[in-house]
Every structure is written in C-alpha cells, then in structure tokens.
Design brief:
By secondary structure, the protein is an all-alpha fold. The protein has six helices and no strands. The protein has helices at 38-84, 87-105, 116-125, 139-146, 160-171, 177-181.
Length: 183
C-alpha cells in the first residue's frame, strides 16, 4: 500500500535526545530562616509572656511575704508588750522592726545610717498614712530615739499604745522609691 496522505496521522520523527535544547531540573530556593513562620512568633510571644508573668508573680509574692512577716512581727511585739508592759523593750523592738522594714523597702538608699531627727523625719516623710495628731517627731515618736538604749527597768513617759499605732501606720503604709527620692 502506497503512502497516502492521512491528515490525522503524522510521520514519526526520529529525534535524538541531544538534539532538543532542554534545561536541567531547577530546585526551588531553600527555605530561609528569616522571617520565621507565624508559629514561631506566637511561641516567642508566649515565652516572653510566661517570663513576665513569672517575674511579676514572684515580685508580688515576695512583697506580700514581706508584709506578712512585718505584720506577724508587729503582732508578736504587741503581745509581748501586753504580757510584760516593758516600755523600753517595746521601743527597742519597734525601732529594730522599723529599721529592718526600711532596709527591706528601700534597699538602694542609705537609710541604715540615719539617726536622730533625720531618722524621725524620714519616717514621717515616707508614711503615706500620716495622722495629724501623731507623728514620729512628736513626743511619742521621740521614744524611738532614746528608749532602745535604756535598761529594761527604766521608767519612761510615753503612750505605748500611740507608739504602737504610729509604727503600725508606717509599717502598713505603701512605700515607694519616690518617697525616698524626695529627701
């Protein structure tokens, strides 16, 4: 049968593989490490939030622990005074408690070195619940200056309940670094 023209059929073409200009296989660009995927951003944000929550919680816990310790010590001093009515011992214990609390509340300042009137002025200045009728620079507050150094059997003329109330108002007030900076 002779070759007849058939438009639906094409003649096979013999092409060699080297005759076709093909390009080599191109791989996609490697995945870059920057910018990270959204999941990594969320993970980073969650880690930062957890660290912040931990730090804030720890700070609040320590602050409240300090307040609990101070309240407990003040209650102990009050009970001890009710049992023995020793005014020099009361003034000594309250003075020590006020010093320790001051050092805890204001660790960066030089409060431990304050004496005399400067000490009483500092206590009045940092008390955010001052009473108009009672200050540390009053006669009652001055008991903190001399009474701690007197013997236990010394007779003192100050109102012990007012001194306890005055120290309690300072110990339960809110203390901030701004109060010390105002000196």
């Amino acid at each position: 049968m002779p070759d007849t023209f058939n438009p639906g059929m094409q003649q096979p073409v013999n092409i060699q593989p080297g005759d076709i200009p093909l390009r080599d296989i191109h791989l996609p660009e490697p995945i870059s490490w920057w910018p990270p995927a959204p999941g990594w951003w969320l993970t980073l944000a969650a880690i930062i939030m957890l660290i912040a929550i931990f730090i804030i919680t720890r700070k609040i816990y320590h602050s409240r622990q300090l307040n609990r310790d101070i309240g407990s010590e003040l209650q102990h001093i009050r009970q001890q005074y009710q049992q023995n009515a020793n005014k020099p011992q009361l003034a000594r214990d309250l003075s020590i408690l006020l010093r320790r609390a001051n050092i805890s509340y204001y660790p960066e300042s030089n409060i431990a070195g304050l004496t005399g009137e400067q000490w009483l002025q500092h206590l009045d200045r940092t008390n955010d619940r001052p009473r108009a009728d009672l200050t540390f620079q009053s006669k009652t507050g001055h008991a903190l200056l001399s009474a701690p150094y007197l013997p236990d059997n010394a007779e003192l003329d100050f109102d012990a309940d007012k001194l306890i109330s005055l120290c309690e108002s300072w110990l339960t007030s809110r203390h901030s670094k701004a109060q010390v900076a105002a000196r």
